[in-house]
Amino acid sequence: MNDFADDYRPDQLLSDLGKRLVSGSLTDRQLLAQTAGPVQQLLPDANVVKIGGQSVIDRGGKALLPLVEEIAGNLAQHQMILGTGAGTRARHAYSVALDLGLPTGVMSVLGTFVSMQNARMLHYLLAKHGIPFIEPVQFPQLPLYLVERRAVVFFGMPPYTFWQQNPAVGRIPPHRTDTGSYLVSEVFGARSMIYVKDEDGLYTADPKKDRNATFIPRITAGELLALDLQDLVVERAVLELMQNAQHRRSIRVINGLVPGNLSRALAGEDVGTLITAE
Questions:
Q1: Averaged pLDDT, 222-247
Q2: Does 24 share its domain with 56?
Q3: For residues 39 and 110, is the Cβ–Cβ distance under 8 A?
Q4: What is the rounded CA–CA span in Å between residue 35 and residue 251?
Q5: Which has the closest alpha carbon to 196: 214, 207, 181?
Q6: Are strands 218-220 and 250-255 parallel, antiparallel or unpaired?
Q7: Does residue 41 form part of some domain?
Q8: What is the pLDDT of residues 153-210, one digit of tens each?
Q9: Which residues span the domain enclosing 246?
Q10: Other C-beta atoms within 10 Å of 25: how many?
Q11: What are the C-alpha distances in Å from 139 to residues 64, 71, 144?
């Protein structure tokens, strides 16, 4: 017993990389490069679907109720992780917070609670189908919910709250509901990331304001960032994250006000705009 204790060294159980990590610095670029490798897709059959706050939910029943029925109609065929945007009420909260001089982290908290309100409403509309609402602390139960109920509802705002980074320009939180939903799809290695908006996809300008806006059916994240458009259909942070993604290397933007578009996107059809990492 004593001989075993004298000979036992914990580092003998470590791989070569493990030994280097224990003895090295996590700011060493050469060491960090050695940590790259295959990553498990945890939920390869799940589809993350982000439903726009201002574009869909704020329009009320005429926009949201048909979409709820379409979601219900796809439960047998597709697993869905349903994220919600914050919409107009978050913009109002941001405007008051800006006037009061509150920092970005505080505004992130405000946006989180508005996104949560929308998630709660979507959850209640899907309650008869047994679809649960989950908060970040419940994500360990996410696989069970998907197997049992085929879908869950969560609020799209990433749970950074006070730890939200400051943006390069202004004080509005740069990582909002588009970003939070995308990160879920990337971390879990989801089958797809679908953004449900009120436009047919990406345009060179806001088609509501510019009649000459041109529809873009397919583009890379790098190309889109290089265009430096004044208005984007998704948050710029999503495009930046995509370029270093390991799993979710593409996103699709569709018009959720057109019946059947979500079903087509879930089936893998070429609807809306496809934005790829490369």
A1: 94
A2: no
A3: no
A4: 26
A5: 181
A6: unpaired
A7: no
A8: 999 999 999 999 999 999 999 999 999 999 999 999 999 999 999 999 999 999 999 9
A9: 46-276
A10: 9
A11: 25, 21, 10
Contact assessment for residue 194 and residue 250, using Cβ atoms and an 8 Å cutoff: no
DSSP codes joined into one string, the chain? -HHHHHH--GGGGS-HHHHHHHHS-TT-HHHHHTT------S-TTEEEEEEPTTTTGGG-HHHHHHHHHHHHHTTTT-EEEEEE---HHHHHHHHHHHHTT--HHHHHHHHHHHHHHHHHHHHHHTGGGTPPB--GGGGGGHHHHHHHHSEEEEE-S-TTGGGPPPPSSSSS-SS-HHHHHHHHHHHTT-SEEEEEESSSSEESS-TTT-TT--EESEEEHHHHHHHT-SS-SS-HHHHHHHTT-SS--EEEEEETTSTTHHHHHHTT---SEEEE--
Same domain, 29 and 52: no
Strand partners, 266: none
The set of residues, in sequence order, having a beta carbon less than 8 Å from that of 100 and lying 6+ positions away, is none
Number of structural domains (the chain) is 2
Decide if 89 contacts 121 (C-beta within 8 A): no
3-state secondary structure 87-103: CHHHHHHHHHHHHCCCC
Does some domain include residue 40? no
Exposure b/e, 224-258, CB count within 10 A at least 16 = b:
bbeeebeebbbbbbbbebbeebebbebbbbbbbbe
pLDDT in tens, 103-160: 999 999 999 999 999 999 999 999 999 999 999 999 999 999 999 999 999 999 999 9
